[in-house]
Every structure is written in structure tokens, then in C-alpha cells.
């Protein structure tokens, strides 16, 4: 694992500490967007678990939504259903909060605590792919492993 970048090594440690046997894969192609990741992996875009960081305007704290690559978060729905007044976080906030750059944000191993929610539609796929710390690193997980690794709550992210 020493050939992995430092950010991906942090994710590897988190996987190991959680008892999850998943191998981080470093790809030549970028996985910065859900579609790029799906193309590089040869899978469908809905099997990509994209990690999106928002700021809750109520608390000014970070909120991560791990969402199927085929979904868009409905901000109005999130406010009405869950009382989360979300605004998209800028790159500096994302890096300070998670320790990762946009396009490689892993759903775990963050520098600071993050409220974490998981798109319930990801549960229908036996295998999903999540970013593993850089725009070129990904990891395969089952939905159960994702939930165990993150402690995230399964919710609906769009109406």
C-alpha cells in the first residue's frame, strides 16, 4: 500500500480499522466525476457512490451526502424533509473539513466530524464504488460496508 498517495493511505487505514476488506484501486483515468469513474471502471454510473459536501446554513457545519452517481440532490426536498438547509461547499471548506480535494473525497477518514447521510437507492446494488482519497483512487464496497464504514444514515435525497 505504500505506493498509494497519502490521502488514499488514510482511507486504507480507515478500512482496516473498520475491519473492511476492500482494496483501493489506483486508476490511470480520472474518477473526478461520477461518469468518469463509471467509464474508467466499466460500470453503470448509478453504481458510483459520489461524496458531496455541503454546509448546513443552520449550523455552519459540514454535511456529506453519499449519493448514487445517477442522482441529483434536491436541496428543497432536503430542507423540507430533514430540516437541512444545504448550500454547496467551496473547495477550501471541503479540503479543511475532509482533508480531501473535490473529485477524490472519500466517505470516511475525514479530518473533522461530518454529518453523514447515504442515498437509500445505493442499497439496491450489490457492489458500489466510492472515491478513496484522490481523483484517481476508488474502492469497491457493499452497501452494508459503506454504512458500517461511515456510520451514515440511509435517507432519500430526492423527491
TrEMBL record:
<dbReference type="Pfam" id="PF04073">
    <property type="entry name" value="tRNA_edit"/>
</dbReference>
<dbReference type="InterPro" id="IPR036754">
    <property type="entry name" value="YbaK/aa-tRNA-synt-asso_dom_sf"/>
</dbReference>
<dbReference type="InterPro" id="IPR007214">
    <property type="entry name" value="YbaK/aa-tRNA-synth-assoc-dom"/>
</dbReference>
<protein>
    <submittedName>
        <fullName>YbaK/EbsC family protein</fullName>
    </submittedName>
</protein>
<feature type="domain" description="YbaK/aminoacyl-tRNA synthetase-associated">
    <location>
        <begin position="30"/>
        <end position="148"/>
    </location>
</feature>
